[in-house]
């Protein structure tokens, strides 16, 4: 039993607000249910009342205040905590560290420190830092800017599950000279100052800049100011430098030098702001970047049948990509705590963003990580939101026998309360309407119909909030039913027994992709190149869209016809930084592009419901039973 596993379990329990079985948790952790029960016993033993995790007939559930307090508490020392302590010690030790003395300080063995040093070397991959060893003494070598990036990396490793825990960031970065209460004030005032200058502010990145400013203040207080600068500061950097200097003095009680101010102002320009209003017209968009973004957007629009080819959208996205390229050249990434939720809640939008990022990265020779892809997805989602809302509008008929203007009052209240999601296209005021002739999505009636169905909602003449909720629930049920009905039709066409593997016994995602690609290749649906490109797509961004499901696929739709190979693990399969239980390798053909969105989004929706997943895994032992259960789950 390890404390690291316990902490992973704490994160899973806090993420889920309902009950979870030991078997489900075991699959997510890659351990046995018996181990899960042992971890929970150990977690409860770490709290005074022993009630951090509740147990019952349905499994386990977090006592959220107690469990969150346990995770925030300082009594634990995980391997990551120890690694971070070692890195922080290396960052502050001018003459390096003695391995044996460090082992005594950390209360671990010499071998453990040697193992941690190997992990530190892995952490330094891709940086301008290195460890130099001379006998028992080891020293971190590299310039001040590279060392600050390492401090930032330690802090960002604390960002998980969409949280921005200031105290955890401060602790991970070792910011002993900076008051954690100053973070929020610095961020708010920075955002306000930028808005007054006519810039749109990325709030997540503003908090990130506050973190970097705190790192700079801490390093300066320790006598490690940043002296090296890149050329002469621009007019914008001068203006921002003055603002950052004032904020740093006010909140961190440190005066930053010109090198630090130029560096921080560069971070602001490349991470925090997008020009708006008059400021937008003053920013020149590089012609090569504009052409690259236009080509990438056009390619994605054609490939995924989405309406995103718009001049304003292309310019806004181009300005974002221009900043992204600058960040890449500085080996910096804009962190996005919404990455996980965007990927799971809007897989289709995220996939469009992956396509754009792939084209942009290849043409501009920049590496684009998941957090950066998530920001592109936010641009895409903003562009598509109005169209998506229009496509989900349901029609309704109001049946309300006439008495003065009751039907008009009812119609007005529905329009005012439910907005554009429901469009009233007919009103029946007779006491004996032709019910069979009513063909709208919803029937909202104040009299009892002769026959009820799922689209009928019986209402009083004067609506309450509870009545409006019933209408909303009925509308949501109809929308979901339509989506899943389309999915059922598509799945029955594209699944086949010869491309169903249970158990899927593979070591990692690449091995799983190749195992599932083999039966499709044998049928001539795809070739080896398609499989290789699916592996390449997986390296761009993980296709583990839920805790249970991965949907690997190639970016290019070159299959001879659309088909799905399905693999189910006994337990779970390692998939990047996560584990999944079901893998659906989807091969799409150019002629059936419209199927992509149906399969992609709705398959993710089905496998995001834990009870449905457990039912499918428990009962779907072979292809026939799995398909029967999948259809049953879809039909509700």
From TrEMBL:
Keywords of the record: Activator, Repeat, Transcription, Transcription regulation
Organism domain of life: Bacteria
Start and end residues of each PRD domain: 284-390
InterPro entries linked to this entry: BglG_antiterminators, HTH_11, Mga_HTH, PRD, PRD_sf, PTrfase/Anion_transptr, PTS_EIIA_type-2_dom, WH-like_DNA-bd_sf
Pfam short name (any one): Mga
Keyword set includes Transcription regulation: yes
Domain PTS EIIA type-2: 493-636
PANTHER family: CRYPTIC BETA-GLUCOSIDE BGL OPERON ANTITERMINATOR, TRANSCRIPTIONAL REGULATOR MANR
Name this protein carries in UniProt: BglG family transcription antiterminator
